[in-house]
Specification:
Layout: H1 8-11, H2 16-25, H3 27-47, H4 55-79
Helix pairs in contact: 2-3, 3-4
């Protein structure tokens, strides 16, 4: 599979160290980042046409990714 866009370290390069530290020290952050990674990979498979789903499913996944990203960003700002 090709490079997957929207990985956390690409979305928040300025928080690279905080992402790593929080993944090690904060279970909530770790679960959020794992969920983000899972949803992001699913979206990538859909966009790469590896999987076919209804447009509504793809849009729901994108909304979920955005909500996860917002929550992760909030935690990163607090930690920063």
């Amino acid at each position: 599979m090709t490079h997957t866009p929207h990985e956390l370290h690409e979305e928040f390069p300025e928080f690279h160290d905080q992402i790593h530290a929080l993944k090690q020290s904060d279970q909530h952050f770790q679960r959020l980042s794992e969920k983000y990674h899972s949803v992001n990979r699913e979206i990538h498979r859909i966009e790469a046409q590896v999987e076919n789903v209804a447009d509504e499913v793809a849009e729901d996944l994108k909304k979920e990714r955005l909500a996860l990203k917002d929550e992760i960003f909030g935690l990163l700002r607090k930690a920063g």
